[in-house]
């Protein structure tokens, strides 16, 4: 697992009531018992850690966030596009 | 259970506090018995250019340990400090009341006020946005700030499904919450109520705002003393559990006292200068509400903020209502010890009244070496003393001229 994935899993663990050590990229977020407020805090922490903004609305189904791997992929692509934006600027 | 006329008697079955001189009722009362002051050097954040450098802060409050019993409310540990204080005081009060679950959760109320809500969170969030150029505030910022968060947290934890909200009336916030809870029970809206207030606003911005009012003392809180030169900001919470007498009896609860009188008045005159009529009428009408003559009151816990204006005005108002008896009863300001916890004051002071009744001992006004000649009542100077307290009155008079007076009496026979 790369640094992005490791950091994201650490953030998830930090916000879990009962942190587990068996979280992998295939783990479904629904298995982590993350509630809506926890998700808002996780998104905040991820944004802060990677300096990105994740388009996310608590009123909508988060299709991008089904598994840990899907979160990692989304963050990677956001990092890449924010890097591209920074390069343009 | 409703009696004809809706005038049910209301009793107190639980009490809890968090104060600068004790994080529980027993610690708080032990400190009162030692005439201990909670005022000390201001700290916990950069003081920068502040000129007032003292406060009565709650130190070493271990919220994780104190709130470890919270189960239903999952985010209490992420809440603002003011909600922690309320949750801790409510837990203590509910433990004493020994209510496991409400017989009818829709007939339970949770009214816990706050003068300013999560002001410390507000400042931190604005510092992040405006100084540290953060992109966003913490996701819980909004919930932490809301002035009704403490009531909501406590209501969730204990499964209260009836009226749940906060009162907000500056230094009368707690007394208003307690009194409204009393009235809801008296008039049959609910059978039980968790009531009180919590405050935790000591930070740079609050100190600056109070400093600009020029009502804070740089030295200490010395109510009724000649040397008094202002109040001292404090923080904390005071919460009671109230029940109808019938509800308490039906479940075999131990009754601590009756909340027999409550009245609210407003000076309707000035934002800062108190009037003698508003406070006097509040005391007079509270006695009338309790169906008591002035001579029944043995102990009066004064608002006693140690500002020049309040202490003289309150003294004059007491004399107007109580006549000669004003000199026979004991009047003290426990703010001399726990400082001025703003909205939470009336809750903590209600507990002081209940303990005075329970232990037949009136708490002192400390720092009272030489009284102001215009303040000539028996303020129980410096050390508390034994005194049978049948009935006790608690005064709360807030900025804006918002007055609330509570009268406590012995458990109904």
Would you spell out the secondary-structure blueprint of this structure?
The complex is a heterodimer of chains A (89) and B (413).
Chain A: H1 3-15, H2 36-50, H3 68-88
Helix pairs in contact in A: 1-2, 1-3
Chain B: E1 10-18, H1 25-33, E2 40-41, E3 54-55, H2 63-66, H3 81-97, E4 108-113, H4 119-131, H5 141-145, H6 149-158, E5 164-165, H7 173-186, E6 192-199, H8 204-213, E7 236-244, H9 245-250, E8 257-266, H10 277-289, E9 297-301, H11 308-322, H12 325-328, E10 330-332, H13 335-338, H14 345-359, E11 361-362, E12 385-386, E13 391-398, E14 402-409
Parallel strand pairs in B: 4-5, 4-6, 9-10, 9-13
Antiparallel strand pairs in B: 1-7, 1-8, 2-3, 6-7, 8-14, 11-12, 13-14
Q: Could you characterize what this model shows?
A:
The complex is a heterodimer of chains A (89) and B (413). The longest helix of chain A has 21 residues, at 68-88. Chain A starts with a helix and ends with a helix. Chain A has three helices and no strands. Chain A has a single domain (3-88), classed as Non-ribosomal Peptide Synthetase Peptidyl Carrier Protein, Chain A. In chain A, 16% of the residues are buried. Chain A has helices spanning 3-15, 36-50, 68-88. In chain B, the strands form three sheets. Chain B has a ten-stranded mixed beta sheet with strand order 5-4-6-7-1-8-14-13-9-10, sandwiched between helices. In chain B, a hairpin with a 3-residue loop joins strand 13 (391-398) and strand 14. Chain B starts with 9 loop residues before the first strand and ends with a strand. The interface between A and B is small, with 10 and 8 residues.
């Amino acid at each position: 697992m790369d640094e992005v994935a490791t950091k994201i899993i650490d953030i998830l663990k930090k916000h879990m009531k009962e942190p587990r050590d068996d979280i992998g990229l295939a783990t479904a977020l629904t298995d982590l018992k993350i509630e809506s407020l926890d998700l808002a805090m996780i998104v905040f922490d991820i944004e802060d850690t990677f300096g990105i903004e994740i388009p996310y609305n608590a009123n909508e189904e988060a299709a991008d966030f089904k598994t840990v791997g899907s979160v990692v992929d989304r963050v990677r692509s956001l990092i890449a596009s924010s890097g591209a934006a920074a390069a343009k600027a | 259970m409703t009696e004809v006329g809706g005038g049910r008697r209301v009793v107190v079955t639980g009490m809890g506090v968090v104060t600068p001189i004790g994080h529980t009722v027993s610690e708080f009362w032990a400190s009162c018995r030692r005439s201990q002051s909670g005022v000390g050097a201001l700290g916990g954040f950069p003081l920068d250019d502040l000129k007032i450098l003292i406060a009565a802060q709650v130190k070493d409050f271990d919220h994780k340990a104190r709130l470890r019993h919270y189960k239903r409310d999952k985010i209490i540990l992420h809440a603002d400090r003011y909600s922690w204080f309320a949750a801790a005081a409510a837990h203590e009060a509910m433990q004493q009341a020994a209510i496991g679950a409400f017989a009818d959760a829709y007939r339970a109320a949770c009214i816990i006020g706050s003068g300013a809500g999560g002001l410390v969170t507000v400042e931190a969030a604005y510092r992040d946005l405006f100084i540290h150029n953060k992109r966003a505030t913490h996701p819980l910022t909004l919930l932490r700030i809301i002035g009704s968060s403490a009531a909501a947290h406590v209501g969730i934890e204990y499964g209260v499904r009836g009226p749940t909200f906060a009162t907000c009336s500056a230094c009368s916030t707690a007394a208003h919450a307690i009194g409204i809870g009393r009235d809801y029970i008296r008039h049959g809206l609910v059978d039980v109520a968790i009531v009180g207030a919590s405050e935790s606003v000591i930070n740079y911005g609050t100190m600056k705002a109070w400093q600009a009012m020029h009502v804070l003392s740089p030295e200490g809180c010395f109510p009724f003393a000649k040397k008094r030169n202002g109040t001292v900001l404090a923080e904390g919470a005071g919460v009671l559990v109230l029940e109808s007498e019938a509800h308490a009896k039906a479940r075999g609860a131990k009754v601590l006292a009756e909340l027999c009188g409550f009245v609210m008045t407003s000076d309707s005159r000035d934002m800062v200068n108190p009037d003698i009529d508003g406070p006097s009428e509040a005391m007079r009408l509270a006695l009338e509400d309790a169906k008591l003559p002035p001579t029944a009151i043995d102990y009066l816990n004064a608002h006693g903020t140690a500002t020049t204006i309040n202490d003289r005005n309150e003294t004059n108002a007491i004399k107007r209502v109580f006549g000669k008896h004003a000199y026979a009863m004991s009047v003290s300001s426990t703010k001399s010890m726990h400082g001025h916890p703003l909205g939470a004051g009336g809750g903590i002071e209600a507990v002081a009244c209940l303990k005075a009744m329970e232990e037949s001992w009136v708490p002192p006004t400390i720092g009272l070496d030489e009284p102001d000649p215009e303040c000539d009542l028996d303020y129980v100077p410096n050390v508390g003393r034994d005194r049978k307290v049948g009935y006790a009155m608690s005064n709360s008079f807030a900025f804006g001229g918002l007055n609330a007076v509570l009268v406590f009496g012995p458990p109904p026979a």
